[in-house]
Amino acid sequence: MFALRIIKSTNNFVNSLPKTARKIHKHNVLYNNKPEDLLNLVIRGESLQFPYVWLRENCQCEHCYHTSAQSRILDWSKFDLNVKANEVSESENSVRIQWSDGHTSQYNFNWLKFRSFTPENQKKYTETIYKPKKETWHGKDFSNILYKRDYSDIVGSEEALYEWLHKLSVYGVALIKNTPSSETAVDGVVDRIGFTKRTHYGIKFVVQHVQNTSNVAYLSSTLQLHTDLPYYEYCPGTNLLHYLVQTVSEGGENLLSDCHYTANYMKQHHPEQYKLLTDVEVEWSDIGTEFGNDFFKLHRAPVICLDCHGEIERINFSIPQRGSHFPGPIELVKPWYEAHSLFWDLNHQFAAKFKAESGDILAFNNIRLLHGRSAYEDSSNNVRKIIGAYIDWDEIYSRLRCLKVKLKNEDGIC
Ligand SMILES: [Zn+2]
Predict the structure, then answer these.
(1) What's the gap in Å between 129 CA and the centre of ligand 1?
(2) Tell me: the pLDDT tens digits for 208-236?
(3) Cβ neighbourhood burial of 74 (10 Å; 0-12, 13-18, 19+)
């Protein structure tokens, strides 16, 4: 058995730990590797350590790993957590291990180095392959961070598509110019990436002034800063909005705000309000009928959802789509409204203001940015019309990695 200790959280205990152990304690598990747990290797001058249990599980032989499925097929019922290396022998480019369970494994040095456990290597892999590191922005810098490519580049060049998707994932927004004036033009972009996220508003949706609408986005009045569909547990990751016809009259201006910037600002300057927005669940809702199908969507989540590292995972924000049921205790209502109001003010203060043009496809991260629009008026020969589609981040990150392997495999990913 591993000498594994599950530790009950007590501040005194945590404070008594050395700094590195405190970091490990974040996961409520403290394990100190013993010398016999680790293989020490020097690969091209660098001293690296690999846990034996990890090495044995990641044996690349045909009995343990299926090459065409690129998946582990090792039988866990026969796995020995305390497996030992009986013999370790190194050649020029690989290491061979004879295990106490009778198995033999061989590991290529490049393969091992790419998976090394050093914090530097793990950070590099996380930020270049796992997900590009996000950079936050203030509205005043919007013209510097907004990346633009022509439609013909996006559908015709993998290099252009990679750069555009990379910028979209780093900044949460990117633009396509000179899109053909067709209701199906946005499909050309979607097809290059993957496929759309279908919702009760359709595979694609049309944003146009509609009198008795099922959604306030289909009105021409001011559309307050919001995220789309916060009432979905599996919320669409990215909006693609093709401005088939933009209004030529006053209004119809876009507002975009990077909530990661706003949330970081709140965390620093208004920590109590930040905590209320990260801790208090509210209820997001959408109830109605569209295309003859009735729907009753509810999802409970805070405005700012954090992951296990305390980093922002998802933002939910919408004045119209927050329900009137407040799931928290009554004492939290007023403080929550104050925090919400501060978030609303700050996002307006930090938002970028611009006006997309006919032929633009505006893409933005729907679980990071807030978007809105000023009121506008249609005229008989100028009817504002947008074709919209959603794509999930799973598809975008997947396409980015595939393109990186194909175009820029300097890291020896596969
Ligand atoms: Zn094997």
Answers:
(1) 26
(2) 877 777 777 666 778 899 999 999 999 99
(3) middle
pTM, to two decimals? 0.89
CA of 100 to the centre of ligand 1 (A): 13
Contact between 358 and 205 (Cβ < 8 Å): no
Distance in Å, CA 134 to ligand 1 centroid: 38
Domains observed in the chain:
33-122 (3.30.2020.30), 139-404 (3.60.130.10)
Cα(276) to ligand 1 centroid in Å equals: 50
**Distance from residue 5's CA to the centre of ligand 1 (Å):** 30
105-151 pLDDT, tens digit per residue, is 999 999 999 999 999 999 999 998 999 999 999 999 999 999 999 99
Indicate the range of 4-18, 31-45, 383-397 predicted with least confidence. Answer: 4-18
Q: Which residues of 294-332 are buried (b: 16+ CB within 10 A; e: fewer)?
A: eeebebbbbbbbeeeeeebebbbbbeebbbeebebeeeb
What's 208-234 look like in SS3?
CCCCCCCCHHHCCCCEEEECCCCCCCC
